Task: structure prediction
Amino acid sequence: MEPVLTRNVGIDGSQTLGVYQARGGYLALRKALGLTPDALVNLVKASGLRGRGGAGFPTGLKWSFMPKDPTPERPNYLVCNADESEPGTFKDRLLIENDPHMLLEGTLIAAYALRAERAFIYIRGEYAYGAKTLIDALREARAAGYVGRDVLGSGWSCEIVIHRGAGAYICGEETALMDSLEGGRGNPRLKPPFPAAHGVYGRPTTINNVETLCCVPFIVERGADWFKAIGPDEKNTGPKLYCLSGHVRRPGVYEAPMGLPLAELIDGFGGGMLRPGRALKAVIPGGSSTPVLRAEECAGLRMDFDALAKAGSMLGSAGCIVMDEGTDMVAVAERVAHFYAHESCGQCTPCREGTGWIEKVIARIRRGGGRPEDLELLDEIAQGMQGTTICPLADAAAMPCRAFVAKFRDEFEHYIERGRPLAAAASGTGA
Result:
């Protein structure tokens, strides 16, 4: 497949307006401004684009929830979620740092389709270089008439605000992001009301991921049929960025069609297993919140929303973490549990208490103090967390915990009985 989202990556000056325009940049915006907002929404609907941030919700359908009659007193807003921080996920960073004008163009087209005259790009605090790159690009775009009053003489105005977060994982959740954007603590909100009715500053708001917005200029430029033709079926369409890390020879971000065979991602793009003589043991397919899969579950598996759901996991952010047979899965589970315990905002009791207890019990097992009843205790804690909190962070901690215990129970039991890892995992150092 020809590079689409990554077509400018590696080209000298790819962050600059001159290079972006020379390679066709902002032509899609000009074309979009000749269409009606409703036509753009229908175009994105027809493309089958689904959100690339993890949930996989149809983008065009999400856009259609926004009011069609905004007023100066009750304007529509667009927010770009650039608060990428799930372990194993680093694709948005590549786009922001290498092709910021692509993100700005996608943001502008989406804002026009949503009848929004103000858009926010919320970027995580740790992405300091990315934020600077975006600020520089925004300055160029404003000077060229792509941003600001009367964009390209269309009569439509749009301002873009780049807002840096403080570096909290929870602020990637859309309602927590909105609280943070407004200057408060990043605590999730109850839904309903949904952001399309009551979002930033109480105004109708749509929140889209960086990669999602970067797909939009190409849909406008090349059409919905072109986008739909990429991918295994009409529910899984378009180009996709896959983050590959762990025990592979060539970790990185790779672009391929939605539905890429997992084996091709690992052996083709990734160059195969990192350590000679060690076979694949497990894969976390979509970032640390998605349930782990054993090697035998990965045979013939495609990397798309529905194939991974059918396999009992999720595409999520497509942050694929590969582990070989030397990996201590209890140690991996402990690291994942520590992350979610650290990042819980503490607002909901099941999450605040549950993430902490999961971390403590797994740590106790790995340090040799585990008890036979600990595995049932872990499952009980995780079950009590799922679906009982305001936001999905509790689920993001509970799902991998249950999957690690269910699929690698022998390794947990060995730790409990012997106080050390199974021989097969003893020589590994974790993922």
Summary: The radius of gyration is 22 Å. The mean pLDDT is 96. Residues 118 and 173 are 21 Å apart (CA to CA).
